[in-house]
Amino acid sequence: MGNLGVADITVTQLRRVSVSGGDVLHILKESDLEFMGFGEAYFSLVEFNAVKAWKRHMRMTLNLAMPVGRAKFVFIDDGGAIREEVIGENRYARLTVPPGIWFGFQGIYSPTSLLLNIADIPHDPKEVERRELSEFAYNWEM
Amino acid sequence: MGNLGVADITVTQLRRVSVSGGDVLHILKESDLEFMGFGEAYFSLVEFNAVKAWKRHMRMTLNLAMPVGRAKFVFIDDGGAIREEVIGENRYARLTVPPGIWFGFQGIYSPTSLLLNIADIPHDPKEVERRELSEFAYNWEM
Q1: Residue A105 CA to its chain's centroid (Å)
Q2: How far is B7 from B5, CA to CA, in rounded Å?
Q3: Rounded distance between C-alpha atoms, residue A79 and residue A141, angstroms
Q4: pTM, 2 dp
Q5: Which domains does chain B have, with CATH numbers?
Q6: Which helix (H) or strand (E) holds A45?
Q7: For A65-119, what is each residue's pLDDT tens digit?
Q8: B1 pLDDT more than 60
Q9: 20 to 30 Å CA-CA from A114: which of B5, B19, B60, B112?
Q10: Contacts A42 to B, Cβ<8 Å
Q11: How far apart are CA B126 and CA B115, in angstroms?
Q12: B21 CB near a chain A CB, below 8 Å?
């Protein structure tokens, strides 16, 4: 089986429920098609302008939500196809990223954005490949 | 079996890993003792001074983390025992709340705090009991 491509990334608009004292923001349910199991959840802070790139997971499916701030995600697959998605407060959607796709992201909100990943396996450095920022010819200038 | 009491709430200090471009904040792993299964994850915003109270879950175990802001949680059990816990950026810890305990919380950070709940069952209004704020004689004044 070949790796999945950037067309296999799912974008799911998430509900924001108006509640007195502070809204409730949906993220993920066990009954969602994009839920592949629970391995670990963690937050990543993303400073304005900072770029975190590149990583590729061999086994992990990521479910990404950004309740604070805004970031641009860039995905590159084995066929060289590139896909960009911006999520955050103004576009509150979940990105489901299957294994096998290179990705990086950039904070585009000052001072800091907050990313949640609900991953189907726990963090395991042996299933993560990394490349230097310069190894893909992508222009991150804003 | 009687309901669990406020002494059965677990506070777990969480790691914050220093990363260039933005730190990584641990939340929950499937291997953690406090992980009771994945039903649903959602965020709750908490405005400064707002009080969200009172609720009691009949079946849900909550795993609560607060990466932005600060909130005071108040728990009351069947025996009338009261327990207070403050979590947030300055005390980045996870609260694991078993079913059967009344709770409420108050934002104590301006303008807004962000709470994550990783619950072991999906939201189900039939398993939530509610009481008006005034039904417990707790003084929320700061």
Answers
A1: 8
A2: 5
A3: 24
A4: 0.96
A5: 6-133 (2.60.120.10)
A6: strand A40-47
A7: 999 999 999 999 999 999 999 999 999 999 999 999 999 999 999 999 999 999 9
A8: no
A9: B60
A10: 24-27
A11: 23
A12: yes
